[in-house]
Specification:
With 244 residues, the chain is α/β, with parallel strands linked by helices. The chain is built from 8 helices and 7 strands, in the order βααβαβαβαβαβααβ. Helices cover 37% and strands 18% of the residues.
Length: 244
Amino acid sequence: MNPWNVVNSGRPITFEEGPVPEAALPAWRSVLAVVAHPDDESFALGALLASFARGGADVSVLCLTRGEASTLHGVAGDLLELRAAELSAAANVLGLREVELLTFPDGGLSEVDLGRLAAHVIDSAQRVGADGIIGFDVNGVTGHADHARATAAAIEAAEACDLPVLGWTVPDGVAGRLRAEHGAPFEGYADEAIDLVVPVERSVQLAAVACHRSQAVPGSVMWRRLELLGDHEHLRWLRQPTAA
């Protein structure tokens, strides 16, 4: 159910740069998503993780904080327990193999030693036998420093484990519209800097988003982003696959 009337355009965003050819997700058997907050796996990566799972991959999520700094909490109950429960419910909808929820400070990941964060990513990647890692792009995409820090930890871990890393991003045109319409500090990339434009199906993602009732509020910039992106997501290689 989609009470916010998010629409899928059926076309990639083109704007000034022109469309980028569609591409398939890599054929990873085990995927590790590294994110900063509960809901990142759904709001940002949901359609991609659902696509990996639908293709037969084992998909796991490592979430570095419990999202305790959220200011959108409008549901009765303890926020830490609530957001953990929302993440668990969303994981079931997305078809995830497992979720590991850590307790680093929400809003303070930049102050945590990068090697310490990377060590957790290494442990998770080795435990699930990851073939690749996915997360936010190095710029954090949405302007939240925690997102960029989580990805920096993922890249450092990938170097140690010799794993490829994909970064979720948005096109410059979408980022510009979100800045103009909502004042949201989104950062995107021009078409020539984007490596994969992947067709996705949004229904599972929207169902996972609905599990995060404390965060998926009407009027959120997320809904406009989904509307602008339609049924495509955009990715960049942050660490290329090793040649066979």
